[in-house]
Specification:
Elements lengths: L1 H15 L3 H27 L3 H36 L7 H13 L3 H9 L4 H20 L8 H25 L3 H21 L5 H16 L2 H28 L5 H16 L3 H17 L3 H12 L24 H18 L3 H17 L4 H20 L7 E7 L10 E6 L6 H9 L6 E2 L8 H4 L5 E9 L11 E3 H9 L2 E11 L12 E14 L5 E12 L1 H25 L6 H11 L8 H7 L2 H6 L4 H28 L5 H22 L5 H4 L7 E3 L33 H15 L1 E2 L2 E2 L14 H15 L9 H9 L1 H4 L27 H12 L1 H13 L3 H8 L14
Parallel strand pairs: 3-4
Antiparallel strand pairs: 1-2, 1-4, 2-8, 4-6, 5-9, 6-7, 7-8, 10-11
Helix pairs in contact: 1-3, 2-3, 2-4, 3-4, 3-6, 4-7, 6-7, 8-10, 9-10, 10-11, 11-12, 12-13, 13-14, 14-15, 15-16, 20-21, 20-24, 21-24, 21-25, 24-25, 28-31, 32-33
């Protein structure tokens, strides 16, 4: 009973290195007592008869052997590892060796057999045997006792020899079969071959001679044919990779050295040669660090770390790295590797990956080893990484597809396509120059189409290079949520395995006035062997797929991307108010000013015509989707212009005012044809960090559009008519209401200058204009409302189906049938004429039919009449 309690405590204290002198003394006493008991039991047996001897062994000697077995199972390997861990000059090392020799002395064949059979896995047994043989070799060569202690040294060596003989039988039975001998033979040849080729010996002719000679010898002996061919294929494959590696090993540009290194380490991984695999892992890591490819260096070290366990087992694989010699257990080495990996990820701004490693380390510190000081340190580092994600600018890298065509390239490049990850701010021209440096005689292909066979079979070198776009995988945990742009942007350019290239081409007769009508897209999708970034900055393309995108689908994609660009700029300016306004100016002006880009009028001309709908009825849903995207662009533009208004300098104020004028006309046109859209989730960001609402085919729109112009107006009972109230009083009441509850993206209307949709006007003229607009828009209705009442009803749930006013300048919500006020520079009579045309009988029918059918024919009705000339280029929008 006492022994059952004592041995586990001894084991725990020895592993921790605590109270070691007392532990050694207690263990020595236990072993001495067991030795004396075993000796007395064996002496008694020699003086007994056969029957009594058998009974005595059961009752006395077997009990002693059981106690020895208990000590053997729990303390032998613990003591061995402690001897390995202590330095050569440590005072307690000799005492532990004496305890180890005493345990071995009391072991018999049954003990050895049962101890070996207790190993559940073959690898664990191999680890124990290697650990024991290395320890014996070290102790025999460098004895821990003084040289004049002859008896002690002889006793130690006698027990070591006895143990080696026992373990030799195990090796013979379990490992020295014919297959094991073949494995050792192969290992020796592979190691020698690796060393000799790297040293400069061997070439392509030697590889061919070696292959032909050995194959002919194996075929002459039927019993060697199959295993011989397998061995020749193994050695030939290694020779090919070693020669490729040697050919580029001394190049100034180490790009291709990295590729050859990866080919070699993958080869050694496939044939399960861990030592050689780890050797080339560290060669690859050193190459990455020398080129400041820190994320790739981190991913490379991670491959080694994943081979290790969170345990105190000794490291049996050859040590690599400057710090590895002092790390004796797998836990120590894995922890050191993880800290180095975190450092490299931090240098490469891959904080999301560093956080994953931090979490795993924190779990160990908190729940396994209870190192709370280390836990505090790793949690602080993790917190800093989260902060960096949101605050530090990380430019997204460009990706390039590179094809190497022709027989003049090495075998690992010949007629293959790779996807490369560019460096920060690296232009394609600079990348191409870096790419072509090792091949000064290579010719650059000027097309992006796959080359013909005469190019791939030619003896020359041809390189093809073009930019590709990463294809982000759908992430369910982000879907439908407001996620900061800094978080989303990382996954748009990292951990990507699919990339696309879009090549435009024309089908059918060319329309000189509208190129979008015949603009088709051939989209090629490339799939790489591994995600990027990884252990390389490039990976080979393993699969390609081609799809054809119609002009209408292309228009939808273009509108989506444009809306995303606007939203990204809005988020950037919300999070960083000090950003320059010039990029926002160019983006907004290119959309709202038709003299610059033409807007989406080309799409309307190409796809919203009755002739197109008649010819392509199957595109009805896609057309409605495009119309919806056009409508959603308006609130985004409104917020962008609002930001631009606050940040524009005085010298660019005329430019901004012209952009406002164009936007007013654009908004009136879009809302009258496609309805009003709101983005309430932007309102939620008031005073906080901007987020990104992820839209997708499966995601519902952020807010439903308001009622269209064909829905009946509210009844007389639901309209509060007060014509006798002076307009000035109504405006004061409205202003008070707006100041209480109405904001636009969290900004209260406190600017001295009014918003783009409500410029300053004389009150009398504003009232007159509003009355004319109301009477024109409500033709045929018996109800007349003041402008402010009309706005209030439009914002009410009964009129719009939405509560509150989260969208629109000054917080007002207007239905699709009502246009916003005009800027001062546009004559009110011009706009009234335009509204009258919309209210004309024919136009009204077309408008109602179009909305009922979900088509944009209201726009066609507007164009049927010749509009009066508008200021500047804004007239082309109508």
């Amino acid at each position: 009973m006492l022994l059952h309690t004592t041995i586990p405590i001894l084991q725990e204290l020895i592993v921790k290195g605590e109270e070691e002198e007392a532990c050694i003394e207690l263990l020595s006493n236990i072993l001495e007592v067991l030795y004396e008991a075993q000796k007395r039991a064996e002496e008694r047996l020699t003086h007994q008869s056969g029957e009594e001897r058998q009974h005595g062994e059961d009752s006395e000697l077997r009990k002693v052997k059981g106690h020895v077995q208990m000590i053997l199972e729990q303390l032998l390997r613990t003591v061995n590892r402690r001897v390995i861990g202590l330095g050569q000059e440590h005072d307690l090392r000799s005492h532990y060796v004496a305890c180890m020799a005493a345990i071995l002395n009391q072991m018999d064949e049954v003990h050895y057999s049962s101890y070996i059979q207790a190993f559940s896995a073959r690898t664990d047994l191999v680890d124990f045997l290697m650990e024991t043989f290395i320890l014996f070799k070290d102790l025999i060569g460098k004895t821990v006792y003084p040289s004049d202690w002859m008896v002690m040294n002889m006793v130690q060596n006698r027990e070591f020899l006895r143990a080696i003989n026992q373990f030799a039988d195990t090796l013979t039975q379990m490992f020295l079969s014919s297959s094991s001998l073949e494995l050792q033979f192969e290992d020796e040849i592979l190691r020698k071959l690796d060393s000799e080729v790297e040293g400069g010996r061997g070439d392509e002719q030697y590889k061919q001679l070696f292959q032909s000679t050995l194959l002919s010898c194996c075929r002459d002996h039927p019993e060697l044919a199959k295993p011989g061919e397998k061995f020749v294929a193994l050695v030939t494959g290694l020779l090919e990779r070693l020669l490729d590696y040697r050919a580029v090993m001394n190049d100034e540009n180490k790009t291709y050295s990295m590729s050859c290194t990866v080919n070699l380490l993958n080869f050694y991984k496939e044939i399960d040669r861990r030592a050689m695999y780890i050797r080339y892992l560290y060669k690859l890591k050193d190459l990455h660090v020398s080129y400041e490819n820190y994320p790739e260096a981190a991913y490379t070290l991670l491959l080694h770390a994943r081979l290790l366990k969170w345990s105190d087992e000794p490291n049996t694989a050859p040590m690599q790295g400057s710090h590895s010699q002092s790390l004796h257990t797998q836990r120590q080495l894995k922890e050191a590797l993880y800290n180095q990996i975190i450092h490299y990820f931090d240098q490469g701004k891959m904080w999301e990956e560093a956080i994953h490693i931090c979490k795993e380390l924190a779990e160990q510190y908190e729940s396994e080893v209870f190192e709370y000081e280390m836990l505090s340190d790793i949690l602080q580092r993790e917190a800093k990484f989260y902060e960096n994600i949101l605050k530090v600018l990380r430019p997204s890298p460009d990706y390039f597809a590179v094809g190497y065509y022709g027989q003049g390239f090495p075998t690992f490049l010949r007629n293959k396509v790779f996807i490369y990850r560019g460096k920060e701010y690296e232009r394609r021209e600079d990348f191409e120059m870096r790419l072509l440096t090792p091949f000064p005689y290579a010719e650059k292909l000027q097309t992006t189409s796959p080359p013909e066979q005469d190019v791939t079979d030619s003896p020359g070198q041809y390189i093809q290079c073009f930019t590709v776009q990463p294809v982000e995988e759908a992430r369910d945990r982000f879907r439908g949520r407001n996620v900061p742009e800094q978080i989303v942007n990382f996954y748009k350019a990292n951990n990507i395995q699919q990339f696309s290239y879009s090549r435009p081409f024309r089908k059918g007769p060319k329309d000189p006035d509208n190129e979008f009508a015949t603009m088709w897209i051939e989209r090629t999708t490339y799939v790489t062997a591994y995600p990027l970034p990884g252990i390389l900055r490039w990976f080979m393309v393993t699969a390609t797929a081609r799809t054809i995108i119609s002009p209408l689908e292309n228009a939808i994609e273009t509108m989506k991307k444009t809306n995303e660009k606007i939203l990204t700029e809005i988020n950037r300016h919300h999070s960083e108010p000090s950003l320059p306004v010039n990029p926002l100016s160019m983006l907004l002006n290119g959309i709202v000013d038709p003299a610059v880009m033409g807007g989406f009028a080309k799409y309307e001309t190409a796809f919203f015509q009755e002739a197109y709908l008649t010819e392509h009825p199957e595109d009805q849903a896609s057309i409605e989707k495009l119309q919806d995207l056009i409508a959603w662009q308006i609130p985004l533009l409104a917020e962008g212009i609002q930001i631009h208004s606050r940040k524009v300098t005085e010298d660019l104020r005329p430019f901004h005012e012209r952009m406002e004028q164009c936007f007013v006309q654009l908004r009136a046109k879009v809302e009258s044809q496609y309805g009003l859209r709101e983005l309430p989730f932007l309102e939620e960001r008031r005073g906080g960090r901007p987020h990104s609402k992820l839209w997708g085919p499966e995601t519902e729109p952020p807010s439903r559009p308001h009622q269209d112009s064909t829905e009946p107006l509210p009844s007389r009972k639901s309209v509060s008519c007060a014509p006798e109230r002076p307009p000035e009083a109504e405006e004061r009441k409205s202003d008070r209401r707006e100041n209480r509850s109405s904001t636009f993206f969290g900004y209260r209307r406190q600017e001295q200058r009014q918003s783009v949709l409500e410029p300053p006007e004389p009150k009398e003229e504003k009232w007159r204009l509003s009355r004319n607009m109301t009477e024109s828009c409500l033709a045929g209705a018996e109800v007349k409302q003041s402008p402010l009442e009309r706005d209030a009803n439009a914002a009410s749930p009964s009129a719009t189906g939405a509560s509150g006013s989260p969208w629109g300048f000054a917080g007002r919500v207007k239905s699709a049938s009502k246009a916003p006020p005009l800027p001062r520079k546009i004559s009110s009579s011009v706009y009234e004429t335009f509204m009258e045309q919309n209210a004309a009988p024919n136009s009204g029918k077309v408008l109602a039919m179009a909305w009922a059918a979900g088509s944009p024919q209201s726009h066609m009705g507007c164009r049927a009449q010749t509009p009066p000339p508008l200021t500047n280029a804004c007239s082309s929008l109508f």
